[in-house]
């Protein structure tokens, strides 16, 4: 009868987690870009009104704000090297969350 020994676990690769996080930020930026474009298309389809144009401008401003936050985070993750990247500050996390939620609300308001 053989007793199983401790399993060999490979060393943790510290470069994988920042890479996955950076790719997640890129995917989120892409999806927010699609939401902003669709919101603009919905606002300008069938004759734009002043309210639709204002909502479209708000969507674009929110998208640009999120894009700036995401780009900053992607840059931090890319320059951190193999070390653990610094955590996202609560201020930036709150701003990214608010931009995302507000963009979704504006997009839904323009669709309906």
Structural class: mainly alpha
Distance between the termini: 69 Å
Determine Rg (CA atoms, Å).
21 Å
Listing every helix as H and every strand as E from the N terminus to the C terminus, the arrangement reads: HHH
Structure report:
By secondary structure, the protein is mainly alpha-helical. Helices cover 72% and strands 0% of the residues. It has three helices and no strands. The radius of gyration is 21 Å and the shape is elongated. The N and C termini lie far apart (69 Å). 21% of the residues are buried. The model has no long low-confidence stretch (mean pLDDT 80).
Topology overview:
Layout lengths: L15 H29 L5 H30 L10 H22 L1
Helix pairs in contact: 1-2, 1-3, 2-3
Features of the shown structure:
112 residues; mainly alpha; elongated
What's this, in brief?
With 112 residues, this protein is mostly helical.
């Amino acid at each position: 009868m053989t007793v199983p020994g401790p399993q060999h676990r490979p060393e943790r690769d510290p470069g994988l987690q920042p890479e996955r996080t950076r790719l997640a930020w890129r995917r989120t930026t892409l999806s927010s870009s699609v939401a902003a474009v669709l919101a603009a298309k919905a606002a300008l389809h069938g004759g734009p009104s002043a309210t639709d144009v204002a909502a479209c401008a708000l969507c674009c401003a929110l998208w640009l704000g999120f894009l700036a936050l995401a780009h900053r985070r992607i840059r931090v993750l890319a320059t951190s090297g193999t070390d653990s990247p610094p955590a996202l500050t609560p201020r930036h996390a709150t701003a990214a969350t608010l931009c995302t939620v507000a963009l979704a609300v504006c997009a839904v308001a323009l669709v309906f």
